Amino acid sequence: MANAHNCEGLSNGFYCIDNKNYLWCYGRTEGTPGKCIGETVCKCGRTQYNPCVWNFLDLPDCEKKPGDFFEKSPDSSESKHESSEIKPDSSESKHESSEPEVSIPKKTVAYYTNWAQYRFNSIDGWTCKYTADNIDPTIVDVINYAFVVFDSTYTLKEYEWNDDQMIPKIVAMKSRNPNLKVLASIGGWNFNFYDSTKHLYSQMAEKQATRATFIKSAMSFARKYNLDGIDIDWEYPANEDQGGRPVDTQSFTLLLKEFREAIDKEAGNGKSKLLLTIAAPAGPWNIKNIEVSKFHQYIDWINLMTYDLHGSWDAVTGSHTALYATDGISVDDAVTAYLNAGVPSTKIMLGMAHYGRGWTLKSSSDHEMGSAATGASKSGTCTGENGYLSKYEIDALIPQENIKFDSKSKTMYGYKNDQWFSFDTKETFKYKADYLCKKKLGGVMFWSLDLDKNYVNTKYIKSLIEKC
């Protein structure tokens, strides 16, 4: 058995020391301590999921009882365990202390996708094509330009042929919204998926010299286009399926630390201070590979990707934006994991999706949540991707009488023949907005502007969180 202060001899997972305290073990002897907040309790000796749940919920892989994996000794008392928690270094104190302890207005962050310009179809009279000219800058506070990339020299570069025209157009929209912030988002899913580029983040972040090259290039790119900051979208550190390696866990922390130091140094020389944000995972299998408790001090906020929780890669239908779930894969589980890691609630932007995930049912007569599927749904008229449709494409496809509310996940699903989709509507977005307000989160992040017809849902959610 291990001592309650370390993970010696324990495999990866969350280990409850008692009903409030736990250790997150992930390949390091010391582990990361955590504490369940509010009325949640630590129920399992060991679990792969968020260990803190409501007392009436059960975890599917619960092994033994709290404390069973640790030696029983006076050293395992709650008071002594808490004193062993990782303390912030001096740089954290300096960075965090600059944040005023007052009520902070909720941010509305949205991603702009530079490939939406290639949609040439229309649906119900609505033109699918979307460019910078279509943006209404008055409905958001922050626009993340998706995506810019970098090459094997770790130098940033534009990806689309007209990025050098589109980025200045968006920056110029500050004339209509003086408070607008525009950031360049680096990476994205495809960058971290294609064989030609998926190893670049891991290779760059491993060594101090290459991190420095990347950081310098990113800051130069931001200054070239008069941007307000950089958003790091590495999907995902230490995920071997997408070019990751175990070393990424520490490398990611060092990258953010050194990026923060470079930003602070530049600001000390009289330049405006750049923002530094990340797009962060919501799945427990990816959260466990990053040192949230260590790096949150270095970033201005987290864009939490609380969507794609389920999709056509699963053999059965499920909610891709589940607010709650019993399998440990939900909005609430993700938010709780970050809060338990010490992230200030105001640094979390809750991700909301203007699209749905779709399946092709094995039997068109079996169309409930959890029904068997043969694969992804057919592609949409506008988005053109199997298993991924904008909300307005779903609205045009699914009869109203076939749209159902799932009370467990607090999300919607709908079907037509053998086509099945998980998505949100105003009704379920309100559940998420209420949750955001209750948890005192910093705001909302949307993926993405082009998928919200006439910005109906963006405006609605913004109006709700402004009342928090």
TrEMBL record:
<dbReference type="InterPro" id="IPR017853">
    <property type="entry name" value="GH"/>
</dbReference>
<dbReference type="GO" id="GO:0005576">
    <property type="term" value="C:extracellular region"/>
</dbReference>
<dbReference type="GO" id="GO:0008061">
    <property type="term" value="F:chitin binding"/>
</dbReference>
<dbReference type="InterPro" id="IPR029070">
    <property type="entry name" value="Chitinase_insertion_sf"/>
</dbReference>
<feature type="domain" description="GH18">
    <location>
        <begin position="106"/>
        <end position="468"/>
    </location>
</feature>
<dbReference type="InterPro" id="IPR011583">
    <property type="entry name" value="Chitinase_II/V-like_cat"/>
</dbReference>
<dbReference type="GO" id="GO:0004568">
    <property type="term" value="F:chitinase activity"/>
</dbReference>
<dbReference type="Pfam" id="PF00704">
    <property type="entry name" value="Glyco_hydro_18"/>
</dbReference>
<dbReference type="InterPro" id="IPR001579">
    <property type="entry name" value="Glyco_hydro_18_chit_AS"/>
</dbReference>
<feature type="compositionally biased region" description="Basic and acidic residues">
    <location>
        <begin position="70"/>
        <end position="98"/>
    </location>
</feature>
<dbReference type="InterPro" id="IPR001223">
    <property type="entry name" value="Glyco_hydro18_cat"/>
</dbReference>
<feature type="region of interest" description="Disordered">
    <location>
        <begin position="70"/>
        <end position="101"/>
    </location>
</feature>
<keyword id="KW-0378">Hydrolase</keyword>
<dbReference type="InterPro" id="IPR050314">
    <property type="entry name" value="Glycosyl_Hydrlase_18"/>
</dbReference>
<protein>
    <submittedName>
        <fullName>Chitinase</fullName>
    </submittedName>
</protein>
<comment type="similarity">
    <text>Belongs to the glycosyl hydrolase 18 family.</text>
</comment>
<keyword id="KW-0326">Glycosidase</keyword>
<dbReference type="GO" id="GO:0005975">
    <property type="term" value="P:carbohydrate metabolic process"/>
</dbReference>
<dbReference type="GO" id="GO:0006032">
    <property type="term" value="P:chitin catabolic process"/>
</dbReference>
